[in-house]
Amino acid sequence: MDICVLYAFLPVQYMSHMEKPVPSGQDKAGQSITANMQSAAQPKIRPAIAQKYPGGVSVLPAWADQGVLITLLFILGTVSCTLFLAVNGLYSASDDVIELTPTNFNKEVIQSESLWLVEFYAPWCGHCQRLTPEWKKAATALKGVVKVGAVDADKHQSLGGQYGVRGFPTIKIFGANKNKAEDYQGGRTSDAIVDAALSALRSLVKDRLSGRSGGYSSGKQSRESGGGDKKDVIELTDDSFDKNVINSDDVWMVEFYAPWCGHCKNLEPEWAAAATEVKEQTKGKVKLAAVDATVNQVLASRYGIRGFPTIKIFQKGEDPVDYDGGRTRSDIIARALDLFSDNAPPPELLEIISEDVLKSTCDAHQLCIISVLPHILDTGASGRNSYLDVMLKMAEKYKKKMWGWLWTEAGAQSDLESSLGIGGFGYPAMAAVNARKMKFALLKGSFSEQGINEFLRELSVGRGSTAPVGGGAFPKIHSVEPWDGKDGELPVEDDIDLSDVDLDDWDKDEL
């Protein structure tokens, strides 16, 4: 019989076995007894707590009536039930929830092709106990579709520590990449759990359709065997650190890790993905590296590494500082680009003198800012330079955006002007072009620091109207001579010889 049911049943059994009272003046043998001894009509358990008073009379304390005893038994049952659950866990073999341990976890979960939802719990945890019936219902509903498991992380602390479990219950989703479990942040009802499982399953199927496996088929993970996805993370040692980092003009973000650390394993794919993108966007000026602090203990001691992972930022001539930002790919990239832009010169302002200049600039940046300036004869060198100065100030102000900056003279690239709708507002004009989407936005305010700043600020937050580039692609770009920085000169007109012209004939009428 279930221990909880047994203790709930005990008070009823107790009441049914109480001795019945005997008639006044007789004992069970029919012998006369005093009225004071009628206390023998109490249950058999009563003498065990009776107090002896002079004269040999046994009297129960006032608290020891039947109601209190029954209540005590209920309390005893509740405590015993809780202790039983704490010793024996929250799930049994008859449930659809699969009990996981350090012995079977790798085989069942890591090496599995299935999607897994795993709860890390402690039997004494009240929240875990309340989740149990919902978790069981979800497991039954998902049977044969998604695997649902549970780990007693109080008993198997090493397994909980491997996945960074710090509170209970913690639920993790093991999808295509079993070495990169995702935290479940949804509701604690069976409906919410099932919905999250099905959503994760759809993502897994889409990844497979697109040919992305998302993980290691062997279920193993190491820094050395990660393949191409970690090619841009530079492994550093006690011997190579100073040469590569301390003596470098570049910015370095260095992760100190331990191979057994669960948080380090979770960070590894994010760090690797960020390394590749940062290398591309900063042209290698910001580098992401990793140090195995359990092997390279000289470095770990030098920089006071006490926990894993620890990330430090190294810049030439400055003391290293701790990175305290988020641990996602986007967080790491954002910090790296901030570091790059803080140390980077302002972007180049290039004249569009060939097709290569336009394409290389716009293809390499998220946006390219193209200005069409008035003809040199209309402004002179000083007027043109004033426009270029405004553009350079804006390029400096927005250099963290990593945009490309271009200009051309009115009429020099008329097909490009037409494809960007330039001309209706006069010159100078400005367009921001996304070459990947072939869309652009036009400056409709003044060509001034304030007007351009408002225009670019709106673009930065995703506002402002856009239109497709005419023809869906950049038009043909004409090769032109670059501006020499001088004032323009009017074209020299050819002299006309009028000596052979009979001016007298001009007075005659012609039919």
Kindly describe this structure.
With 511 residues, the protein is α/β, with parallel strands linked by helices. Among the domains are: 98-208, 3-Layer(aba) Sandwich (Glutaredoxin), CATH 3.40.30.10; 234-343, 3-Layer(aba) Sandwich (Glutaredoxin); 349-468, Glutaredoxin, CATH 3.40.30.10. It has helices at 3-16, 66-88, 105-110, 126-141, 157-162, 190-209, 241-246, 262-281, 297-302, 329-343, 355-364, 376-397, 414-419, 449-460, and strands at residues 51-53, 57-59, 98-100, 116-121, 147-152, 170-174, 182-183, 234-236, 251-257, 286-292, 310-314, 321-322, 349-351, 368-373, 404-409, 429-434, 439-442, 467-468. Strands 13-15-14-16-17-18 form a 6-stranded mixed β-sheet, sandwiched between helices. Strands 3-5-4-6-7 form a 5-stranded mixed β-sheet. A 5-stranded mixed β-sheet has the order 8-10-9-11-12. α4 links the parallel β4 and β5 (147-152). α8 (262-281) packs across α10 (329-343). It is elongated and about 120 Å long. The model is unreliable at 1-64, 79-87 and 214-228 (pLDDT under 50).
